[in-house]
TrEMBL record:
It is found in: Periplasm. One of its GO terms (biological process) is bacterial-type flagellum assembly. It comes from Hyphomicrobium denitrificans 1NES1. This is Flagella basal body P-ring formation protein FlgA. SMART domains: SAF (SM00858). GO terms for cellular component: periplasmic space. Gene3D superfamilies: 2.30.30.760.
Amino acid sequence: MMKPIGLSMLILLCLGSVAYADDGVRTVFVPRNVIYPGDMITADVLVERKIRVNSENSAVFGENPKDLVGKVARRTLMRNEYVPRSAVREQDVVLQGRPYKVIYNSESLSIVGEGIPQQAGAVGETISVRNPASGVLFKARVQPDQTLAVDVQ
């Protein structure tokens, strides 16, 4: 006859092995060497590494090299360590202090002008822009073609 404490231990061991069997192994891309903040990530600085994840994590950032290649490191990325999504950002397409085309479109009006970003920005980011003629500051969204789109403010 098995003692109650022995049966409890057996059940815990069985449950632990079932949970372990549900865990999967995924391949992610990690830095081959240390990548410093502001460095662009290229395919040649990445290497594959297998990590263990549980079945509740349907997707892991970095499984596809496109998740990382072309991005810029926000912080130091250590060699052979997993790169979280928050550690990288898109590359800036507009630079601070340079003039860019600014576009405002509505149903009945379209205005095109020039603006000077007060900060660098990546595609989709909303940044502060100064009108060089009037000095007025406004917000604009960075477009893939390096123009700045003004939304209704």
